[in-house]
Amino acid sequence: MREATVERATAETWVRLRLGLDGPTGGKVATGLPFLDHMLLQLQRHGRFLLEVEARGDLEVDVHHLVEDVGIALGMALKEALGDGVGLERYAEAFAPMDETLVLCVLDLSGRPHLEYRPEAWPVVGEAGGVNHYHLREFLRGLVNHGRLTLHLRLLSGREAHHVVEASFKALARALHRATRITGEGLPSTKGVL
Ligand SMILES: [Mn+2]
Questions:
Q1: Structural domain range at position 63
Q2: Is residue 193 part of a domain?
Q3: Is residue 108 part of a domain?
Q4: Considering the entire predicted model, what is its pTM?
Q5: Which of 8, 91, 92, 173 is in Cβ range 3.0-4.6 Å of 46 for a Cys bridge?
Q6: Which residues surround ligand 1, an ion (CB under 5 A)?
Q7: What's the rounded mean pLDDT across residues 132-156?
């Protein structure tokens, strides 16, 4: 069974995260930031993962550090859980609608970090529980840089922060589920390495 547990501590945050790609799903999520918990539970449910997250952060300063560092821990766990990548589906895309909002996420578990997401181009208004779509960028940067994947995120419609951020997590979850499946036998690369 592919899974990994990481623990990461800085002067700003402490995160312990367990990710399981196969087998049982669910797990307790408690970061101290309710909207982030709500998003991680979307990832867990719609990605059909085991995802346990326990975290503390300097929320008296801002939500920024905690959101970013949970993304980093998720990337670290993903990279470790994927192992050598033999048989990996590797590519996936997923749309997620939420009423008026529509988001597209396209992934390549390539071994090369690249994030294609421009929050300044997204006409989002407001925030959700202290979290906005610029914080989403920090989460995704952490995930991409440490999970070593290519991630494109597009907003096709919608403006309301809660729907936009949540639909983004749902699209990410669905794409991550599919990209992490074992569907073949060899390494899915002509280069011979991911
Ligand atoms: Mn919601």
A1: 3-179
A2: no
A3: yes
A4: 0.97
A5: 173
A6: 166
A7: 98
